[in-house]
From TrEMBL:
SUPFAM superfamilies assigned: Cobalamin (vitamin B12)-binding domain (SSF52242), Radical SAM enzymes (SSF102114)
Cofactor names: [4Fe-4S] cluster
Record domain Radical SAM core: where: 180-405
Protein name as it appears in the record: Fe-S oxidoreductase
Organism phylogeny: Bacteria, Pseudomonadati, Planctomycetota, Candidatus Brocadiia, Candidatus Brocadiales
Species annotation: Candidatus Scalindua japonica
UniProt keyword list: Iron, Iron-sulfur, Membrane, Metal-binding, S-adenosyl-L-methionine, Transmembrane, Transmembrane helix
Gene3D superfamilies reported for this sequence: Cobalamin-binding domain, tm_1862 like domain
Length: 494
């Protein structure tokens, strides 16, 4: 079977896993990738619209002549998916299947979309392969677990299948098609496991866990030799200089880290980046990471108000614990990236300033600021509805995937302007010498959101020296590839 994937903006490891799994099962896959340079979730840059290339993508889709089209939908990608699928449906009369977080949290809503014929809830590899196998053999597809279908005006819902127990059995994610579009350059992204043991109320992990109830172990980790083998395969193919481990939490097990550090140092030894939950950070783990050549750790502080952390976010930890974890990381020589979120329901200006002040005390190498976005079906989404922060209009906007955690707050929040200003200025505040910080604070207190955005954009190379510069390089590369593709399509048309 020929499967055409659509994705936008950045590389998707989830789609790469699906593509390699389907290839292993004998199917043919292709990708149409929209670089989305005019709105990449971080910034909206209208002048970059000229790099949009729907025509070239449609040409490519038609010449591939797929049997099925697959779209993976993180919530804020839904508006863009909705732009391209009517065009694809018009040109190619084949079924369209959707999967991803937005689909798993709002299955009925997504299936109401006239252009979507079926959806996959939860892990997709085995379910999608089974579906294709049945389609190929012209068998009944409507009993495929994890899949819901539209048929003759009704919805057929199937239960969920067991989680994939042994992740080592999966083929390594196929990065080749994303690479052709310039989606990565010298920074290789990968994951070493699935699942997370924590229960942050703004995260859809909690919802994913409930979907997978009684379906096997939710938290799974690959073996270290399997990870090293994958790394070696990519390193033989691409000119990689850094590795980014995108696991929700890299630091949960000291035994695993010890084994990883030893083999990684021996076989790979490239600088790497990973994520850590503050209470999982200790001297032993950090010293192992340092030995293995870890250059930067991303640690979520989220709020600087202990009450908000404990009672609203379900991240019960003291300010002192956060400061201690940060000190351990910085003392080791690993760079610390601290993340903050502003604009939670119930947040007052006082609690938002507490976040700035705790970040200042922690003194990370890099501070990132996000704006709270209530992803559907998360605990904080339901709470925001109950407490009147989301009315019908906002709920509909979230269902349509509008907004995001880099744009303005979608909540009916009395202090949303302050939240946006703080989130945009905290990275530059963190890099500003202390004698000039009162000036940035003055700007923050004035809630000048537009000026804050301009300062944020200008400061990206300084505020985010590693990922910011990598992001700029990748954006330029994607723009160049998109331009070349557009020129080729235009030449063919003449
Ligand atoms: S630690 Fe990260 S992945 Fe885990 S629940 Fe919290 S936000 Fe989600």
């Amino acid at each position: 079977m020929k499967v055409l994937f659509y994705y936008r903006g950045i590389e998707s490891i989830g789609v790469e896993y699906l593509m390699s799994y389907l290839k292993m099962k004998g199917h043919n896959v292709e990708l149409i990738f929209d670089p989305g340079l005019d709105d990449n979730h971080f910034l909206k840059l209208k002048f970059m619209k000229k790099f949009n290339q729907y025509e070239s993508l449609l040409e490519k889709a038609k010449s591939f002549d797929p049997d099925i089209i697959a779209v993976s939908i993180p919530t804020n990608l839904y508006p863009f998916v909705n732009r391209i699928i009517p065009l694809l449906k018009k040109e190619l009369p084949v079924p369209i299947i959707a999967g991803g977080p937005h689909v798993s949290s709002l299955p009925e809503y997504v299936l109401e979309n006239e252009n979507i014929d079926m959806i996959c809830i939860g892990e997709g590899e085995e379910a999608f392969a089974e579906l294709l196998d049945k389609m190929e053999k012209k068998l009944n597809i409507y009993d495929t677990k994890n899949m819901w279908f539209k048929k003759e005006g009704r919805i057929i819902k199937n239960g969920t299948r067991n989680l994939i127990a042994d992740l080592d059995q999966l083929p390594f994610p196929d990065k080749s098609l994303f690479y052709e579009y310039g989606c990565f350059y010298d920074n290789l992204e990968m994951v070493t496991g699935r699942g997370c043991p924590f229960k942050c109320t703004f995260c859809n992990i909690h919802f994913q866990r409930s979907l997978a109830k009684d379906k096997g172990s939710f938290i799974r980790r690959r073996s270290i030799p399997n990870i090293i083998q994958e790394l070696n395969e990519h390193l033989n193919r691409y000119d990689i200089k850094y590795i980014s481990f995108h696991d929700d939490n890299f630091t949960t097990s000291i035994d695993w880290i010890e084994e990883f550090a030893e083999l990684y140092k021996k076989e790979i030894n490239l600088p790497f980046y990973c994520f850590a939950y503050p209470t999982t950070v200790n001297k032993e783990i950090v010293s192992q990471l340092k030995n293995a050549n870890c250059m930067q750790i991303f640690m979520g502080m989220d709020s600087g108000d202990p009450d908000i952390r404990k009672n609203l976010l379900k991240r019960p930890m003291s300010d002192e614990r956060i400061e201690m974890s940060a000190k351990i990381i910085k003392d080791s020589g690993i760079k610390l990236q601290l993340s903050t979120i502003f604009g939670f329901p119930e947040e007052t200006p006082e609690s938002m300033w507490k976040t700035l002040h705790l970040a200042e005390k922690v003194n990370p190498d890099i501070a990132s600021g996000y704006i709270f976005y209530p992803f559907p079906k998360t605990e904080l989404y339901e709470y925001s509805i109950k407490k009147g922060y989301l009315g019908n209009e906002e709920i509909e906007r979230i269902k349509r995937g509008e907004g995001g955690y880099h744009h303005g707050s979608i909540l009916k929040h009395p202090y949303k302007k302050l939240a946006v200003t703080l989130s945009k200025l905290i990275p530059v505040y963190n890099k500003t010498p202390s004698m000039f910080r009162p000036l940035i604070k003055w700007l923050m207190a004035r809630e000048c959101t537009k000026l804050a955005l301009v300062i944020y954009i200008i400061s990206i190379p300084i505020a985010f020296p590693f990922l910011g510069i990598d992001g700029i390089k990748v954006t330029l590369r994607m723009a160049w590839k998109a331009y070349r593709m557009k020129v080729k399509t235009a030449r063919r048309g003449n």
